[in-house]
Amino acid sequence: MQKLNVSIINQVKRMEMQQLEKELQQFVEANRGESMCICPFCHYLTKRGKGTAKVFEDSFKCFACGVWRKI
To answer: What are the residue boundaries of the structural domains of the chain, listed by start?
Structure first.
């Protein structure tokens, strides 16, 4: 079994986090004025077809999967 260098693993993690932050920023900008929207992580919808995520002024919160991110 080969072992990866720790610096390679850290670099990949950093790149993935930057990509997630970029996608989340685009999502927040698109849904800033809405009351409830579909979570980009769990994509959960209620029985009535509404989303479970809410974009606040300084954060994003999904009430179904519990994801909370500071903007």
So the answer is: 6-70
